[in-house]
Design brief:
The structure holds two protein chains of two kinds.
Chain A (H helix, E strand, L loop, with lengths): L4 H21 L28 E4 L5 H12 L18 H13 L3 H8 L4 E6 L2 E8 L11 E6 L13 H5 L12 E6 L17 H14 L5 E5 L2 H12 L4 E6 L9 H9 L4 H4 L3 H7 L2 H12 L1 H6 L3 H8 L3 H14 L13 H4 L2 H14 L2 H12 L7 H4 L6 E5 L9 H7 L3 E6 L7 H4 L1 H17 L7
Parallel strand pairs in A: 4-5, 4-6, 6-7, 7-8, 8-9
Antiparallel strand pairs in A: 1-2, 2-3, 3-5
Helix pairs in contact in A: 6-7, 13-17, 14-16
Chain B lengths: L3 H5 L5 H26 L26 E4 L5 H12 L18 H13 L3 H8 L4 E6 L2 E8 L10 E7 L13 H5 L12 E7 L17 H14 L5 E5 L2 H12 L4 E6 L9 H10 L10 H7 L2 H12 L1 H6 L3 H6 L5 H14 L19 H14 L2 H14 L5 H5 L5 E5 L9 H4 L6 E6 L7 H4 L1 H17 L1
Parallel strand pairs in B: 4-5, 4-6, 6-7, 7-8, 8-9
Antiparallel strand pairs in B: 1-2, 2-3, 3-5
Helix pairs in contact in B: 3-4, 7-8, 14-15
The chains are: A alpha/beta, B alpha/beta.
InterPro entries (chain A): AB_hydrolase_fold (IPR029058), Epox_hydrolase-like (IPR000639), Epoxide_hydro_N (IPR010497), Epoxide_hydrolase (IPR016292)
Enzyme class (chain A): hydrolase
GO biological process, one term (chain A): epoxide metabolic process
Chain lengths: 469, 476
């Protein structure tokens, strides 16, 4: 494998080493994570009471915004790729030219803004910053049924827009061939610093801060009990939310379940799991997805985590050019939609992007980053969460007792077997190997994800599992 | 007397009759092996390469002409730049962030204002053209270099050819202040006496005005080979080498490839990736009994606390390396389209790698060591040549083949070597560790001040050390 084993191996060892030490020194606690107070607005916190109104919001655009974008697309400077490099060196600029040409000539931002506005959006001030969210209620409810609130949190480089295809499957399942035993009202906020949510002005806004803000949001919307769903950063924020407010969360559904608090047993399972899977609780599918470990885990992490390394250390530097060049922004974001959907796409000249997504959706997501100018603040989230290292934060040692459902997609960048997940998520109600799909599950396989959410909620509701914590 | 007595009292017996020759053979064999290994120098394979587009032409010899070259600009180029500077979009920094999150955008706006209103690119182009530039085609690509000869050579003095190789995110321009100190030392009150140089500074292929390779696999070894061919084409059989950053890696490869052509190797950056038990023990003991493992007090001061300086800080500063070594085309794309983004990315290094304490400053301490004109001229070289992406690919090509950068350590360096250890360099390599790879260290100097961009920041100090080293080598 073409790995950076040298210096970067040191990195991995340091992380593992730190983690082992913490494991040895700490005991698994069942305590809750404290709610994180904060004030993220500009300057000093004012003495006046915070404005808690919920204001309707609509995405808007202007001619100026459009002509500025077009001008930048016209003046874009590309560098020819190396011969036969496909997507191995990053986004292939020959394919990028095609995307930019579509962006200039066919993509219709005004029309996409209307698409974005088809769901009701709102803003409300929490802890000093404006939080944007989409709130979709079911169009109709059968007699005697109430809508279950479902908080869905996006990640990077995604946005609330990732959920646009799955929302109708959850708010109106019957019209989409799904069982309407459970119907949801869906709330998709934008993480502060992403999209139309204001970026924090102060340092130290991490996943626990985001979880606390979203907790306040749900309470402000009048929800005392709710479900939460997430992948990428959404996974971590919803996990933290489950740790902060376990009595309010009926169930937690994840399409990514990473476990960073590893211990000696984990290491052992890495070394021997391929040969003695049963001993470590690995299923055949786990072995298939995880081994050979060096190639599928270590090399993969090294090859694919450069962005995380630089964003966790110098976000303002790396984001600067991307906030000024829409083409650079597109290249940076599209690379993830390609590689994280299927690692094999790196061998394709066009990165396989249009196999699973359409350019309108991909560009709409990129436009959200562009028009809100949020790429830099979105990257800062990495530094706030990772700067002390992985496995070093308090919440990573805490477990989750809330009923959890995990949808494990085959092309997710890293696979976490149930055997590992259950050390942290002590109440796994459902764990399914999904037949296809990658990192951006809601956008790529909305039907599969919706079905898994529905069956999970079904289990939780049937046995009223949230009462048994 | 006491030594000879057991020998005199040696009794002849059958057992001894076998033992003696066996011992002699053993000792003799070891002696021969030891003597041989001292003189058998391993070298790196030279190999060959083709980096032009398409297939290598089967017929015809390569055009070996050396063509004079001048940097040019146009109104169009300047207007395009100005337009982009004017339309730049900034994200406000977090309160109290200084340079801890990367380049502070408040300070960046000031730099860009200077760039737009005061910086004079036409004037800087004239500055760049003050030294003679050339281009020549080697292995299918155009190699750019400057070649500066001393204007006056005192009677009887030998002029030493010196190849100086830059790194990332630098360029040949980093050497502009040090060149006169080396070609005309007397004129700059550098009484290093008898040493005068003619200096050749090439641009690494993919950087500045050297054409970027069109094929995959262009690494430091290929660069080393091309630079040897360059020196050969210029008529030099033996020469000195000097380098920092990638220049260090490349010149080391050159010394390992053709040691007979390298009179001496001077480095201001040494990164030895020698892992292993012995190193670990040295690190652990070094904090408490440095003398036992060959570390000096200055070494200890610069190397410890070990985890902090060599692991934590390195991790904090190597994000760029990680992304460039894996996804250079992605990382460089926006930078080739936004000069402001390019400046932030490059100038962040000129801040942090010059002095780590600059992280705490709102303006990154940049103008305390450099002028905006010289910093922006270096950035402009990347901008006008659109070479940021190809410059980043060099990381991927090198790290893919040799992730631990251990090849150098395995082969060893036998040419006379001089090391200038600057205090603010990213990593400090004590002489005790360096000599595991560099078998022939002639000088090792703890420089009093200066960081990673030594030639740019402390040209006089570096020039003095180069001359001090070369004088010693010439005396050998």
């Amino acid at each position: 494998c073409s790995s950076l084993a040298g210096i970067m191996l040191l990195e991995v060892f340091l992380v593992l080493g730190t983690v082992i030490i913490y494991f040895l020194l700490s005991k698994k606690k069942e305590e809750t994570l404290p709610f994180k107070e904060g004030w993220w607005g500009k300057g000093q916190k004012p003495d006046t009471e915070e404005d808690t109104t919920i204001r309707p919001f609509k995405v808007e655009t202007t001619e100026e915004e459009l002509s500025d974008l077009l001008r930048r697309l016209d003046q874009a400077r590309f560098t020819e790729p190396l011969e036969n490099s496909c997507f191995h060196y990053g986004t292939n600029s020959v394919y990028l030219r095609k995307v930019v040409s579509y962006w200039k000539n066919q993509f219709n931002w005004k029309k996409q803004v209307e698409v974005l506005n088809k769901y009701p959006q709102f803003k409300t001030k929490i802890q000093g910053i404006d939080i944007h969210f989409v709130h979709v209620k079911p169009p109709r409810l059968p007699e005697g049924q109430s809508a279950k609130p479902l908080l869905m949190v996006h990640g990077w480089p995604g946005s609330f827009y990732e959920f646009y295809r799955i929302i109708p499957l959850l708010t109106d399942p019957a019209s989409h061939g799904l069982s309407d035993e459970h119907i949801f009202e869906v709330i998709c906020p934008s993480i502060p610093g992403y999209g139309f949510s204001e970026a924090p002005h102060k340092k130290d806004f991490n996943s626990v801060s985001a979880a606390s803000v979203f907790y306040e949001l749900m309470l402000r919307l009048g929800f005392n009990e709710f479900y939460a769903q997430g992948g990428d950063w959404g996974w971590l924020i919803c996990t933290n939310l489950a740790q902060i407010a376990p009595n309010h969360m009926k169930g937690l559904h994840l399409n990514l379940a990473s476990v960073t608090n590893m211990g000696f047993i984990h290491l052992l399972s890495i070394l021997l799991g391929r040969y003695l899977p049963g001993l470590f609780g690995f299923q055949d599918e786990d072995v298939k997805r995880m081994f050979p470990f060096l190639k599928k885990r270590l090399c993969r992490i090294l090859l694919e985590s450069g962005y995380a390394h630089i964003q966790a250390t110098k976000p303002d530097t790396v984001g600067c050019g991307l906030n000024d060049s829409p083409v650079g922004l597109a290249a940076y974001i599209l690379e993830k939609f390609s590689t994280w959907t299927d690692l094999e796409f790196r061998n394709l000249e066009d990165g396989g992007l249009e196999k699973k997504f359409n350019l309108d959706d991909l560009l709409t997501n990129i436009m959200i980053y562009w028009v809100s100018g949020c790429i830099v603040s979105s990257m800062r989230f990495y530094k706030e969460n990772l700067q002390k290292g992985i496995g070093t934060q308090k919440h990573e040692r805490l477990t989750v007792q809330v009923p959890t459902g995990i949808a494990s997609f085959p092309n997710e960048v890293m696979h976490t077997p149930q055997a590992w997940a259950k050390k942290k998520y002590t109440n796994i109600v459902s764990f399914h190997f999904m037949p296809r799909g990658g990192h951006f599950a809601a956008m790529e396989e909305p039907q599969l994800l919706a079905e898994d959410i529905l069956q999970f909620v079904g289990k939780v509701e049937k046995e009223q599992l949230w009462r048994k914590k | 007397e006491s030594i000879l007595s057991p020998i005199r009292s040696f009794e002849y017996s059958q057992k001894n009759a076998v033992l003696v020759p066996a011992a002699a053979l053993g000792v003799g064999g070891l002696l021969v092996y030891w003597l041989r290994s001292r003189y058998t120098i391993k070298t790196t394979e030279m190999g060959d390469g083709w980096w032009g587009s398409g297939e290598r032409p089967l017929k015809g010899k390569e055009d070996e002409s050396i063509r004079p070259f001048k940097i040019e600009t146009s109104d169009k180029e300047i207007e395009d730049l100005h337009r982009r500077l004017e339309q730049a979009r900034y994200a406000p920094p977090l309160e109290g962030a200084a340079f801890h999150y990367g380049f502070n955008s408040n300070y960046l706006q000031k730099v860009v204002a200077y760039w737009r209103n005061q910086f004079n690119w036409r004037k800087q182009v004239e500055v760049l053209n003050k030294y003679p530039h050339f281009q020549t085609t080697i292995e299918g690509i155009d190699i750019h270099f400057i070649h500066v000869k001393p204007s006056y050579v005192p009677h009887g003095r030998a002029v030493q050819p010196l190849l100086m190789v830059h790194g990332w995110p630098g360029s040949f321009y980093e050497f502009y202040k040090i060149i006169p100190l080396l070609t005309e030392p007397a004129g700059h009150s550098l009484n290093e006496g008898d040493v005068v140089f003619e200096v050749i500074c090439p641009s690494i292929p993919g950087y500045g005005f050297s054409e970027a390779p069109h094929q995959k696999g262009f690494d430091a070894i290929a660069t080393a080979r091309i630079f040897h061919k360059l020196m050969n084409r210029l008529g030099f059989k033996e020469y000195y080498l000097q380098g920092g950053d990638w220049g260090s890696r490349i010149t080391i490869s050159m010394a390992q490839m053709l040691p007979q052509s390298v009179k001496g190797l001077h480095l201001n950056f040494v990164f030895i990736s020698r892992r292993g038990l012995r190193r670990m023990i040295s690190v652990m003991l070094g904090a408490y009994v440095p003398w036992l493992v060959g570390l000096t007090r200055e070494d200890v001061r610069r190397t410890y606390p070990f985890i902090q300086k060599n692991i934590y800080e390195l991790l904090r500063e190597s994000g760029y390396l990680h992304i460039q070594a894996t996804k250079p085309d992605t990382a460089g794309c926006g930078l080739n389209d936004s000069p402001v983004g390019l400046a932030a990315y490059i100038l962040e290094k000129f801040s942090t790698w010059t002095d780590k304490s600059f992280l705490h400053k709102d303006d990154g301490g940049l103008e305390s060591k450099y002028s905006l004109d010289e910093l922006l001229t270096n950035v402009m070289i990347y901008w006008v040549t659109s070479s940021i992406v190809s410059s980043m690919r060099f990381y991927k090509e090198n790290f893919s083949k040799d992730p631990g950068l251990t090849a150098g350590a395995r082969v060893g360096v036998y040419v006379p070597t001089g090391i200038a250890a600057f205090p603010q360099e990213l990593v400090h390599t004590p002489r005790a560790w360096a000599k595991e790879t560099f078998k022939n260290i002639i000088t090792y100097s703890y420089m009093p001040r200066g960081g990673h961009f030594a030639a740019f920041e402390e040209p006089k100090l570096l020039a003095q050390d180069i001359m001090h080293f070369v004088r010693k080598v010439e005396q050998l």
